[in-house]
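Dear colleague,

As promised, here are the two records you asked about, laid out in our usual form so they can be pasted straight into your sheet.

NAME FIELD: protein one
SEQUENCE, THEN STRUCTURE:
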Amino acid sequence: MVKKLFIPVFALALFSCNQRKEAEANTSLSYFDVKGYFGKEISRLQRLNPDVDKTVSINGIAEHKKAKITDWTKELAIFVNADINKTSWKGSFKTKEQDGVDIYTSDNKKIPIKKISITWKGQKAGKIEIIIDNKNILYQSQDTLIYCPDSLYEIKKQQKIKLLKEKKYSVIGKLK
């Protein structure tokens, strides 16, 4: 009896594995591949190991230093996390191309990424700008992320928590 059940169960398990691979293979990206792009940039920057003039500012008080970034994955994580190709977000972004700039926008309240614009220089991205807006009853923040390959990355954040004073943060890294 056990032998008779073993063969159909084994066949069913094998069949379900093949279905999953086909499902994964058939998924294609609906929008610009932010996660993939920054994954390649992180690898490239890790390899190049450029000097960075970095300025960090909190509520207008700035600190400037020259640095070697040892972990580009951590440094650019906020950019990687701005991936708009999540399965549940499919169809939630409007796409527009205007004067060499691809613009992706969403007005869905459940999606924090509101706008991504990619300015092209030929076949390469010359500038990527991302607007992220988070709101709930207690908290609201707006992030503006700018990335220009081989020159700079900028992260600006405005944060307001109920009953607390608004905070403004910025990180500007100029690549040398």
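NAME FIELD: protein two
SEQUENCE, THEN STRUCTURE:
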Amino acid sequence: MYAVVGSRRWRTHPLRRKVDVQEARLWLLVAALTLMCASSIGIAHGWAAFEREQSVVAEQRADRHLVRATVLRDAATSTPWTDESGQYQRVPVPVRWVTATGGEATGEVPVPPGTERGERTRLWLDSRGSVTSAPLEYRDVWAEALLVGGSSAAVTFGAGALAGIAVRMGCNRRRATMWESEWSRVEPEWSRSA
């Protein structure tokens, strides 16, 4: 297969011009550079995002801890709002928990709709004892790394595609100029014979 493709593309042909060969070579160069740059940039940015998010997870896990709390009031049985997955959003209700010093604290935390008074729920506290969100998980780290790496690679591919379009436009402009000059030489002969 290489012999067929290689021989047709690069061999002399009555309609082949120098600009055609130059365009093919430039396209190959742009494609190779785009592939190499997109993969290396995507991997580098993805890895940097992975390490950054891992440090955030480590900080959050060191700072936050899980406690059990008692629900002080019945939660609404239904809510008109849903989240992105179509599940009903949680309803904020007051809860009470035991602090690290042995005292009691209260606050509002979101619980599933229909949670009844006296039920136990879990909540996350930071080092100051304030209610906070759960620490990030490692799947969040991977998701962020893949998103950043994929986005960087996609932007690089886009830049490569623009470079390929610029090569094509430049070669087309060159072909049009050559066609114009050839036509200006041939046109007087054709006009005379008509």
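A couple of things worth noting about protein two: The radius of gyration is 33 Å. The first helix runs from residue 2 to 10.

Best,
R.
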